Amino acid sequence: MSFDLDAFRPIADSIGRLFAPHAEVVLHDLTTNTITHxxxxxxxxxxxxxxxxxxMDLDFDQAIIGPYTKTNWxxxxxxxxxxxxxxxxxxxxxLMCINHDIEAFSLALEQLSAIVTTAAPLRHxxxxxxxxxxxxxxxxxxxxxxxRNMTLAGLDxxxxxxxxxxxxRSGFFGIRNATTYTAEILGVSRATLYNRLNAARRxxxxxxxxx
Length: 211
Fold this sequence. Notes:
2 domains; alpha+beta; 211 residues
């Protein structure tokens, strides 16, 4: 008794339509080693073409095969996965293959990688702009938050005071306007910053305030 693969055509068409133009869905008839249907075709194959070369190395003991890689006729990279279709006796009679064209995504990923990486390590911004104390304060605060897995919004009174004390020990409050800048970053008034700075200095060596 022959198995009707036509029932799987709407599924193939749905997947092809959802992921168009980047996914092609191919139905193979394993009993004839031919392609019976293609949704969103970009591989230049047609129904009736032989599918032997596409399926000869697959393990039909699995229900789902892949993902695995393929190359399209135009050299574009494909990521593929196949589902084995069985008849009522469990015999493999068909194969639904989804070929996802990942070339555009790979190129986008390469472009993003090129944007965020460099061929050689860059000198740190503080080396290039040694006089930019704002950048140095930003770095100090970022390192403090990273070490504690926190955000500025999550700082409580104690950790804010601890951060201010660390900035003071680094000498930033000896720089004119640094307290104003830091107060703006922390979202507190200058008066509040001075109060917490004085509290922090009770436990540390005092340093002059620049403004």
